[in-house]
Write a structure and sequence with these properties.
By secondary structure, this protein is an alpha/beta fold. The chain contains 13 helices and 15 strands. A 9-stranded mixed beta sheet has the order 2-3-1-4-5-6-7-8-9. A 6-stranded mixed beta sheet has the order 10-11-15-12-13-14, sandwiched between helices. Helix 7 crosses helix 8 (about 220-225) and helix 12 packs parallel to helix 13 (about 365-370).
């Protein structure tokens, strides 16, 4: 055994021993492909109204467990099992008695990769729950709905469908680049104002609210916790743009579902013109031409005013938009980063809204820095 493996095994063993100091009901796992980080942080804000709470990620689960102290009452862990084997490894360290599933990223449920890479690893953890555990699911995702069908756990749904959800949101609107909505639980309701921008971010807050209600935290305390949330860098981050424009930086996640959610939000915001700047989505596993054509269809349906694409596979979007009848004069294709900067600095005006989606490895962040106004 190498020195590295020996050190890792020793650390894992220590972490497993530490985790036994807390009852399994102290551990909460958050599953999903989009919104896990936001959900974990929202859960922390809500739980901290009543419990000493620790948060961590599956990528460094052993380190998180070694941070547990006697005063720790709840541990919220972002789980990201890419394989069934990884899920089994997590379960050797902890067996959460509450699981939350937020948003999945899939294009075609019939695709074998959807089952193998997205569903099976999560089901391995979900199926570990016993009848005293809690399973909190996003009703608005048909695939996630199915996770509750045969579960031994007590199942709770959140979403926008009042008749099906234990906690639901309605009257969702945007106000000065903040999201405002009513949070409903039974006959109780409170208004939530959050700087987290987007319909899809509401689902993360609803998940945390459902966890809070499951653990008997009053709705007023849940509201207090949720409204302590702050915007995460590159997560639908609204920035002051050049010449009175507004830039929305959503470059953290390049998945298809994250793109669709960002586009839905863009369409719901008041603007003189809506402009999309997009590079190819490097880093997305299994991405194929049909994904880019699907994205182009979404862009076309949302009637954006202008689309700017970078080089490489992003050109598929421009090609498909042209095929769909999107005016060629509204498409700038195969643009380098300097060309994008120069063009935007020439044409953007007050009231323009610019959404940036793209891969960090293509340095889209450098473009954003050039077209925003920095507040010192």
């Amino acid at each position: 055994m190498t020195k590295f493996n020996l050190a890792y095994s020793t650390k894992s063993l220590m972490a497993r021993q530490v985790s036994r100091f807390l009852p399994q009901t102290s551990f909460i796992g958050v599953l999903g492909d989009v919104g896990k980080t936001t959900t974990v942080l929202a859960c922390q804000k809500v739980l901290s109204e009543k419990f000493e709470t620790l948060v961590g990620t599956s990528s460094d689960l052993t380190t998180t467990l070694l941070k547990i102290r006697p005063k720790t009452k709840k541990v919220v862990v972002e789980l990201n099992p890419e394989t069934v084997e990884m899920a089994e490894h997590f379960l050797k360290l902890i067996r959460p008695q509450i699981l939350i599933v937020v948003n999945l990223d899939y294009f075609d449920q019939s695709d074998p990769l959807t089952q193998q890479n997205i569903v099976e690893p999560k089901l391995k953890i979900i199926n570990s729950l016993n009848n005293s555990a809690g399973l909190i699911l996003n009703w608005e995702d048909p695939l996630i709905q199915q996770f509750g069908n045969n579960s031994k756990a007590q199942v709770f749904y959140f979403g926008k469908t009042a008749s099906k959800c234990h906690i639901w949101a309605d009257k969702i609107r945007f106000d000065n680049y903040q999201t405002v909505f009513e949070l409903n639980y039974g006959v109780e309701r409170v208004e939530i104002k959050t700087p987290l921008l987007g319909f899809h971010q509401v689902s993360c807050l609803l998940a945390a609210a459902t966890l809070g209600s499951y653990l008997d935290i009053p709705l007023t305390s849940i509201k207090k916790g949720l409204e302590k949330m702050t915007v995460l860098n590159h997560h639908m981050e609204a920035l002051q743009g050049f010449n009175g424009s507004v830039v929305i930086d959503d470059t953290y996640n390049v998945s298809v579902s994250a793109f669709e959610a960002a586009l839905e939000t863009l369409s719901g915001l008041a603007a003189k013109r809506r402009i999309l700047v997009m590079t190819e989505m490097k880093g997305v596993k299994g991405l194929s031409e049909k994904y880019y054509r699907h994205i182009a269809q979404k862009i076309y349906n949302n009637k954006l005013d202008m689309v700017i694409t970078g080089p490489g596979e992003a050109s598929i979007i421009a090609e498909e938009l042209t095929n769909l009848g999107f005016g060629k004069e509204r498409i700038l294709d195969n643009m380098s980063n300097p060309q994008i900067v120069n063009y935007l600095l020439k044409v953007v005006n007050k009231g323009d809204l610019i959404l940036f989606k793209g891969s960090k490895v293509l340095k889209i962040d450098e473009v954003i820095k050039r077209v925003i106004i920095k507040n010192d």
